[in-house]
Write the structure tokens for this entry.
Amino acid sequence: MDFQLLFTAFQALPAHARWPQQRQLHECLRQAIRSGNLVGGMRLPATRALAAELGVARNSVLYAYEQLATEGFIVATRRGSVVAPLAGRLVAVDAPAPPMPSARGSLSRRAQNMPLLPGAETAAAFAPGVPALGEFPVLRWRRLLDRAWASLRPADLNYANPAGEPALREAIAGHLRVARGALADAAQVFITDGTQGSLDLCARAFADAGDKVWIENPGYQGAVAAFRAAQLRAVGIVVDGEGMAPTASDWQRQRPRLVYTTPSHQYPVGSVMSLARRLALIDGARRAGALVIEDDYDSEFRHDGPPLACMQGLAPDAPVVYLGTFSKTLFPGLRIGFMVVPQALAPALALLLDRAAPRGRTAEQRALADFIVSGQFALHLRRMRRLYRQRRDALVAALASHLGDVATVHGGTAGMHLALRLHDARSDDVALSARLMARHGIMAPALSLHAVGLRAQPWRGFLLGYAQVPVEAIEPLVKKLASVVRN
């Protein structure tokens, strides 16, 4: 039996690509037994021999054998691990699933058509959006949490202010005025459960079903999902080296209600929107009666050149809703984001939230306010900027060395990820991305999957997050990436 061929074929299936290695091996052997490819009484290779043949850790083989023995598919004998005699006959081949008796057990068509969100939750190498979690000051954070819990009264355990803890709103407004050039006071700041929650709220509060929303093309699929869920019509607007580039025809024929943009570090290609483009977008939105949603998701990490001020602060009356999150600067599990709305909209949004959005997590919000006001947040950002710049430099150098003749790096001046654009526009970056995950456990999302709307976008390549990848691991990983791309 050629176990290497069996395992490689199993790994290549897209449904199995993201499974851990030990689960892949267990399911591969289990399926082979159930299908009769491994017949009852057949002796399996010793764990060391199979690990060497497949090029996997011996612990993965031990785990697979133990699981199969627990399930009764194999038995331990003096000759080693043997396929159970009745295994093949008892569960030969999975029967096809019967059709659903009704639609009640399935998702709606709208839900089924929603795009997948980026896999920022995974810890795989180059997964975008994952910070250096091991560098977070956990002990200091725990002390702040303990102090916040000690300050709570029984009444604080009830639903809290839907707009968020006053101390946190004040702390965020102060930070944004200094660090991002924002024109904001605490009354304009609203705490959310993260950027996705902010986008959902913007879609419901500031637009009606059928309204048009502009989204960068290529762009953030999480925004596409939020706006589609609110029954808005997404229009993809092309991105170039200066960011989102709407034409005069777009303003006339595709008049938007909302304009979603990531001007400080475009997601996914990394363009930085020029000042002239920012001012033109604000002016166009004002004339169209539209709101610009400025997603400033990782702008704190500017690697080259001076920090850029946010769009929200470019004009006192700018029609801009500013979105921020702590999932990139601190850690995703905190689940705290915020939005800053124009002064004229703040009272109406506060009233809407009073009616519709009870909120809690008072202790975490108070601890975060302390973290910001005490200066620990700014200190942590400075440390992460240095670390991420080192990792960015190592990644750019490795990509130039191993793929410089077939791909170009974009968007490395800021943030936590860069785009690797393949010179050959015919490249199947989706297939290459799946192969990288299946063979090497490398998550490199395909740029072509970030297309928005009906307009073609010419980007073929990968989105590479580097914040969570140690410097010494980057070049070996890039060598593996290069081997897949070149082959």
